[in-house]
Amino acid sequence: MTRPHRPAPPDHDVRLTGWREAIRDSLGVIPAACVLGAVGLALLLRQVDIALQDDTGRLLFEGDPSAAQSLLGTIATSILALTTLVISVTVVALQLASQQFSPRVLRTFFRDTGTKVALGIFTGTFMYSLTVLRQVHAADARPEFVPRVSIDVALGLVLLSLGAFVYYVNHVVHAIRIVSIIDSVAAETRAAIREVHVPGPAAAPEEVPARPPDLVLAFESRPGSVVTLDEDDLVRVARAHRCLIRLVPRMGEYLASGVPLAEVWGDDGAPPPDLTPDVVISHVGLNRERTMHQDVAFGFRQLVDIAEKALSPAINDPTTASEALDRIHDLLRRVAVAPAPTGYHRDHEGRLRLVHPVTDWDGMVGLACDEIRTYGGTSLQVQRHMRSLLDDLLAVVDDDRRPALERQRRLLDHAADLAFPDPEERAAVHHPVL
């Protein structure tokens, strides 16, 4: 007899995820790699120059040591000034994005590969020039030596740096546009949906005990937001300790010191003697701020924050809010047709071992619509976009997901009644989106 197929718990290694997020958020990893590569290239080309010392071709630098030192010094100084300018522009762009849109969107700049590569080219060229400069020997105590191939490569790196600077300026100009920012957030959220919304096992009511837990584990580590759950390792921990673990915090929630971390039911009705909070928290990733690797709701939160900022009296930009709603519409449509995560995970024998809370459809719809409706209910444009969003979703969702959308539609109609007392104005909210 064949065993029934049981989906294996996902494997989200906490350490690997933490390292990956740290690398993606760091502005220094790629520039540091470029610096090391530039130094290595300079040392390698030194050997080429030694081999070709007596063979001066037309394409090689023909100046004396003094001219070589002057040229390399000029290159290093110029590239350092260019790097300083690039860093200044980056800081200004971050400040503008933070003030104009939302502090949460700064992470899209930290993760931008184009900016990191441009900085890497500049810092690499600077270090390459300094390394080659040390190799130039004037005719004093040592024989005269001019690394001609290395100097020609330095000139090539200068051209590359100029091209990178032009690219960087063009890239930053486009990157600080709101459409680029919300598209970046939406793209990362789509990736999170594909990661999280996968078929999972259900649980029978009797599998989750109705009695109080045999053991409650309190959080005793450094506070932070939950950014990763290593489900398969937590299942192994629960199986090894012969218990069921139900995590209390949901993804993205901030854990303060002393709050409940997990509720535990032993298989034999007694608390597992060796299960400690440290054992559980070692498979739960924490960070100072939320990330979107397993946190779909954080993507919606960023788009909602952008819309709210645009609808504030100081900015009053309903078009930006509408553009954010367009991306929210697309994401909700994807969530609507994707498998709903259950939060239940079994071991290989089919026994329920791990339960963790998930954001359900009603919570996702409320997160996406409630605050934008509250702040933008008096905007005709926002009213039309929200109405179009809800009408489209009502046409594609299953019956069990309709109540949340119908509730939003009723609240939106009530907001329109309050904002537009004149019947003709109120009728305008039903016109197509322009």
TrEMBL record:
Ranges that cross the membrane: 27-48, 68-96, 117-137, 149-169
Keywords: Membrane, Transmembrane, Transmembrane helix
Ribosomal protein found in the keyword field: no
Pfam families: DUF2254 (PF10011)
Record-given protein name: DUF2254 domain-containing protein
Taxonomic source organism: Iamia majanohamensis
